[in-house]
Design goal:
With about 525 residues, the chain is of the alpha/beta class. It has eleven helices and 18 strands. Strand 7 and strand 8 (about 125-130) form a beta hairpin. The radius of gyration is 29 Å and the shape is elongated. The two termini are about 50 Å apart.
Amino acid sequence: MASLGPELHKFAAIIDQSSVIEEGTPTRYRLKPKTDFHDESEPFRKTTFGERDKNKPHKIILMVGETGTGKTKLINAMINYMLDVKREDKVWFEFTDDQSDRTSAHSQTSRITVYGVYLQESKTDLTVIDTPGYGDTRGIENDKEIAKSLLSLSKCNDWVHKIDAVCLVVKASQNRLSDRQIYIFDAVQSLFGKDIVENIALLVTYSHGAHPKNVLTAVEEAKFQCAKNDKNQPVYFLFDNCQGETFHEEYQIVQEQSWNLSFKGMTGFFKLLDNIKPKTLKMTQDVLRQREKLEANITNIQSQIRKMESKQNELKQHQEILEYVKNDKNFECEVEVEYKEKVDIDLSLAKEATCCTVCEENCHYPGCWWVSNLSQCSVMKKSHCTVCTNKCHHSKHVKEAKIYETKTKTEKRTNNDLKKQYEDKIVGVMSLINKLDVELNELKIKKIKLVIETFDSVQALEMITLNTDSLIILQHVDFLIERLKEINEPEKAETLEKIKERAGEEKKQALEYMKMFYK
């Protein structure tokens, strides 16, 4: 590397820990991380630069937004602001990389990245939690996994114990509020508890300095909740994402405008960080846990319904057989025999499932992909499963890319076959029917319990989540209303009907969009 000019001596230590990406105006450097934590069993990774100074103020921010809004460039702009890089220095430092460019297995999942930026030259240490972009081609399951990853990360108290600011990154070119945008705004708000609303700010990227009227209109129409200024308008900051690009001499005026705009936005944002009161993630953790519980219960109710239908068919068949035996008729009939078979799971829904090998039941599917110790799976309580029939110990469970699937096969039975089994055992047949009645009743009781628990989860979410009447809830409302009517709970069903009414036509259309494009 050529010797540094006098204007770059103040960056000598940083440049010594960097590599050149591109020569030009400015010259771009890549900061070499001190640590790069990649545990493939975790849904997040951590990269740090420098040593954490516990005597310095430490700010933690979370960045969320749609795919393609420029979060990566924005994080790099923060680093250059902290280093007090000026346009005339003709230098630009980069630390982050674009998750969409990765080719590893985790590039196909919601892998959160935590950037620890600990610069000696800065008066503040900064931790940036960068979430994958919402609404990309990988679908709604990918977006749901962002929530699971955030819950996992929030449990790591040595990394993240508070949040100073949640940054919703939006493009200045955002115009009309489409069904897609309603879905994305809804998904972002559904991550957090109500207590964090005053810590949410808008970071408007690719701006040329004009008042972001369209962005603010879209945010207002979507009823997106965030911090407000003294004029009761959303708190926002403008950035032009061109600072790190090399410019030819004739475009220096454009570059200067870009620097001035982004410097002003960054100054305002860091002033906000200095004055804002950080929030713990306790309520947000409760929101994410309730979301997991809601999704798991819906899956389990659907499983109970299938089991009940199977038992009802089996009961009907044995009642018909009993009538034949009582009448001593000659007959040949076909009987449906139920059995369990392990099959590969649908990889578009999940990668792995937690199953009980004793009960031969699927206890957590979809949604169980990152836990390596099954005792920590969200369906386990005190080392025992809360889902499978016998509430088996976690050691009786396995996590793999297979699930149990109930299948049936047809067997022919003749009168002699039946007589051999039932001839002198009419009482035994009645006992078998009674046993099926008991099993069916037990399934009904379990279904009732699950439906009530699921309704309670909806009510809990409505109480604590920043985003009431969210699409997370609305996608299951019709299903739950029918189940509540089946168990004679009309008042609870009416409560869910009111949620549908409050949601409005826009969210209903966004829900249809979500079902169509994010299956």
